[in-house]
Design goal:
The complex is a heterodimer of chains A (about 120) and B (about 110). Chain A has about 120 residues and is an all-beta fold. Chain A is built from no helices and 11 strands. In chain A, a hairpin with a 5-residue loop joins β4 and β5. Chain B is mainly beta and about 110 residues long. In chain B, the strands form 2 sheets. In chain B, strands 2, 4, 5, 9, 10 and 11 form a 6-stranded mixed β-sheet that branches. A 5-stranded antiparallel β-sheet of chain B has the order 1-3-8-7-6, with no helix packed on it. Chain B is globular and about 40 Å long. Classes of the chains: A mainly beta (about 120), B mainly beta (about 110). At the A-B interface, β5 and β10 of A face β4, β5, β9 and β10 of B.
């Protein structure tokens, strides 16, 4: 059973370009979460999705950021018109049920985004 | 919204010394989870605590969940160099059902 797969592992974008980060959850997991991490800082919640639905996007910046988890295919975190401040590690996690139901989350290896 | 505070932010210990990190939530939690992230790696689940006052042990690691289900601690006995990394607590439930709210993490350095 493959773990949570994220790609690419490293992504370099020029200011103003778009960044698309992909996350394939573990098999059988229908709950996906995206977190952002700056160096030597904690994991900041961005968005929680289930298949075809955004459940909680309270941590997502209102502009330029969007996320989806379609019926088929991976979850996508999209950042439009990237700026230097978007440089960070973006982690995706998945779980069988929602964390409030006492289930652990499995993390992918992250995408390190560098905006130049 | 729900906040999870974790202290200390950094901890440097000599190999063999003990280490403790503390976690406090602004709201009552349904469960608390602990994760470890090695330098350059990704968070890896360690354990989950669900019951009020629960204590769990994993070899040299002891995890506690407070009676009010708002605080937790992780204690490592006789640290080893393999213990280095960042330890995060993450709270679930309460007013933020469905999402894990992470503490800032404690970065542990173990000097041989």
């Amino acid at each position: 059973n493959a773990g949570v797969m994220q790609n690419p592992r490293h992504l370099v974008r020029r200011r103003g370009q778009e960044a698309r980060l992909r996350c394939s959850p573990m098999k059988g997991h229908s709950h996906v979460y995206w977190y952002r991490q700056l160096p030597e800082e904690g994991l900041k919640f961005m968005v929680y999705l289930q298949k075809e639905n955004i459940i909680d996007e309270s941590g997502m910046p209102k502009e330029r950021f969007s996320a989806e988890f379609p019926k088929e295919g991976p979850s996508i975190l999209r950042i439009q018109q990237v700026v230097r401040g978007d440089s960070a590690a973006y982690f995706c996690a998945s779980s069988i049920t929602a964390p409030g139901l006492n289930t652990e989350a499995f993390f992918g290896q992250g995408t390190r985004l560098t905006v130049v | 919204g729900q906040q999870v505070m974790q202290i200390p932010q950094y901890q440097h210990v000599q190999e063999g010394e003990d280490f403790t990190t503390y976690c406090n939530s602004s709201t009552t939690l349904s469960n608390i989870q602990w994760y470890k992230q090695r330098p350059g790696g990704h968070p890896v689940f360690l354990i989950q605590l669900v019951k009020s006052g629960e204590v769990k042990k994993q070899k040299r690691l002891t995890f506690q969940f407070g009676e009010a289900k708002k605080n937790s601690s992780l204690h490592i006995t006789a640290t080893q160099t393999t213990d280095v990394g960042t330890y995060f607590c993450a709270g679930a439930g309460g007013t933020s059902y469905g999402k894990l709210t992470f503490g800032q993490g404690t970065i542990l350095t173990v000097h041989p």
